[in-house]
Amino acid sequence: MPVSLNASDKDFTARFNAMVKAKRDAEADVSTVVAQIIADVRKRGDAALHELNAKFDHVDSATLGLRISQSEIDTAATQVDPQTLAALETAAARIRDFHARQRPSDDFYTDAQGVKLGHRWTPLDAVGLYVPGGKAAYPSSVLMNALPAVVAGVRRVVVTLPTPNGELNPLVMAALKLAGVTEVYRVGGAQAVAALAYGTDSIPAVDKITGPGNSFVVTAKRLVFGHVGIDNPAGPSEILVVADNKNDPAWIAADLLSQAEHDEVAQSVLITDDAAFAEKVGAAVRQQLSTMPRSNIATPSWEKFGALITVGQLSDAAPLVDAIAPEHLELAIDDPQALANKVRHAGAIFLGRHTPEAIGDYVAGPNHVLPTAGAARFASGLNLLDFMKRTTLVQCDEASLQKIGPAAVALANAEGLQGHALSVSIRLPRGAV
Amino acid sequence: MPVSLNASDKDFTARFNAMVKAKRDAEADVSTVVAQIIADVRKRGDAALHELNAKFDHVDSATLGLRISQSEIDTAATQVDPQTLAALETAAARIRDFHARQRPSDDFYTDAQGVKLGHRWTPLDAVGLYVPGGKAAYPSSVLMNALPAVVAGVRRVVVTLPTPNGELNPLVMAALKLAGVTEVYRVGGAQAVAALAYGTDSIPAVDKITGPGNSFVVTAKRLVFGHVGIDNPAGPSEILVVADNKNDPAWIAADLLSQAEHDEVAQSVLITDDAAFAEKVGAAVRQQLSTMPRSNIATPSWEKFGALITVGQLSDAAPLVDAIAPEHLELAIDDPQALANKVRHAGAIFLGRHTPEAIGDYVAGPNHVLPTAGAARFASGLNLLDFMKRTTLVQCDEASLQKIGPAAVALANAEGLQGHALSVSIRLPRGAV
């Protein structure tokens, strides 16, 4: 049974806090195995990749080559039906447009002391996108990870993906074509992350690795972090819907189940101001679960991690939202902007009754790679800045150095760094400090 | 002896690449010990902190309390002389001004399909700044870490620092006062990171941890990453100076040594277009090393990791700079902007003959917390955005959902996520998909 809470209950705070703190992500500790795989790839390069490909995916990449050729990509992509292809094109265009607006500004100015200073943004040279195999190979994720890098101006956008039994996923290949990605390698797991981070004869190293993956992939990314950049670790999906009783319970139930169907440890939570409406949504969920194709996944998710929470008034929802810091926040209420303005922590907010979260998974435009498990307290969804970096600039002339230099000399000496002090004072007139 | 390379040498590329790849950071693997400390702090909270404080710092925090009182801070800060305090004030004002210009813009617009969308930035609620003890307790680092958080609007800026034998560093206390930080705890090492990440009775948890530290602190930050945010791992400092023969060799030598004095594994590199000038700088370095106070640190750094590189012409320096991706790049040449425009990777660039790198360590304004060890390929120096996060916003109405909804339904069905599809199609007119 999903949790059912009412803010007027005596034990509400304790039960709510227990729900927020419950760990849904029982990730296996595979760090020893992963460290061995990384060491093996660093030592033996392509040979290690071929061996692991043969073992895990039954793929003879030593013969086929690690690089997936453009003709292989093209051939697989032709299997996608025109309607789906058109939908992918719609998604790609909207994602491009949204991310293009995020281009940051450079700044270079002269301050009152005559110092010129500022910063500039440049794209990364090369990024690697990990695309999972099997059931989690989503073309929408390919677009969401690759397009911000492309829009940022990254020269090399590289994709690695496992190809179990040598099969290519046509939808993924079509998404790669739409995103303009041409450098694609058949290799998955921790070995793909190792190859991207350290390079092999066939796979030149990249500067940053993004994209979802299983515990081996996530652990490998953690271990190579620092040598290359990585994105934020992503946990199971979650949705928090704030809805009043003017909604159709079936709509809200569908929204809750759209996350529950992702993963048995996904979490779907409703906050409403009407206990009777909460019950109606619960009933609608049960009804939809009885017919939905992925009921085998959505049912345990809802039973174990679902929650129906009733509060005195909708504005009481704001602190509860912040405590959860949800990946997805849906506000199906009369004045969603007013409540959104009271909320501080959420990865993405979906405003109003006609904005189901799933619209953001595909075609709205904003990225669907979002902070999970409360990380919205400190992290942002994937965006253009993840594929760029900032360099600061300073230029003093003789006059401006004379103005600000003496303070630097004083601080360097106070810190016991006389070499620092000398590098400034040597440029100042005698007697200036 | 420092490396001396000339681009006209046959083995130049091999020797240059060897220099770039040389690992300067022999960090001990302390992850087992650190994991135990974190587990202990999570389990026993304040009691564990008191025990470790007594053991390592000979501080009785059980009696004193973990919180350092405002009167303790004030009393220690009064020991700072007026000239140093004025210099700290100059630094603080300039750092504030520079970071205030970085405030990002929100965006909310209506697109051609009638979808309203955009993003907004909000500050983090609480960040913890780790301040090292002993020789590495630099007031400038306190300002560089704390002020961007304060300017971003972070409500709780918390500092932890070790107090060996109970002593407070007056300069650090003065810097904390200038930054407006009032929540300060006496605890260092991995236990401080654990307390900040998970909270204890005395130290409420924060959302992100920044600041430099030894291998225990760095390892602890890695281990708590994901539960809280962390900054980029920082390695030993490094400077790359590009200089022509119109410079005074003594000035350039001083700049090289200003980094060498940081750490025995710091790295200082000169690139010039005149082999004779390189020799003069080498001689000036030897001369300055013979008199500088921190010669015991700067000499092994220069001997082991220093390099003098001669290229055919200054524009040849650009690809070498990018290969190194230096933390600090100084361009002491006639047209520094022209070369800066050719460089892609550097943490901070210092333009012209009157801009020694050390000016940026203290008073220029840009942050001195910068990516090291080649991380400038993918990372930025600390800035305002490190203390803020972005939430995306989407709002459809009935009409706009009808326009973009069918593509979402098509993609959800193609991915086998019929629950996603239903949450959109249930809001569309019958027959729309």
Assign an overall shape of chain A: globular
**Mind telling me the CATH class of the largest domain in chain A?**
Alpha Beta
Most extensive interface between two protein chains, with residue counts: A-B, 122 and 122 residues
> In angstroms, what separates the terminal alpha carbons of chain A?
74 Å
Function (chains A, B): Catalyzes the sequential NAD-dependent oxidations of L-histidinol to L-histidinaldehyde and then to L-histidine.
GO molecular function, one term (chains A, B): NAD binding
Protein name (chains A, B): Histidinol dehydrogenase
EC number (chains A, B): 1.1.1.23
How would you sum up this structure, described in words?
The structure is a homodimer of 433-residue chains. Chain A is an alpha/beta fold and 433 residues long. The first copy, chain A, has 18 helices and 14 strands. The first copy, chain A, has helices spanning 12-21, 31-44, 46-57, 61-64, 70-77, 82-100, 139-152, 170-179, 189-198, 215-224, 249-260, 275-289, 295-305, 317-324, 336-342, 357-362, 398-414, 418-425, and strands at residues 3-6, 107-110, 116-123, 126-130, 156-161, 183-186, 208-210, 229-230, 238-243, 267-272, 307-310, 328-332, 348-351, 388-395. In chain A, strands 1-11-10-9-12-13 form a six-stranded parallel sheet, with helices on both faces. A five-stranded parallel sheet of chain A has the order 6-5-4-7-8, sandwiched between helices. In chain A, α2 (31-44) packs across α3. The longest helix of chain A has 19 residues, at 82-100. The termini of chain A are far apart.
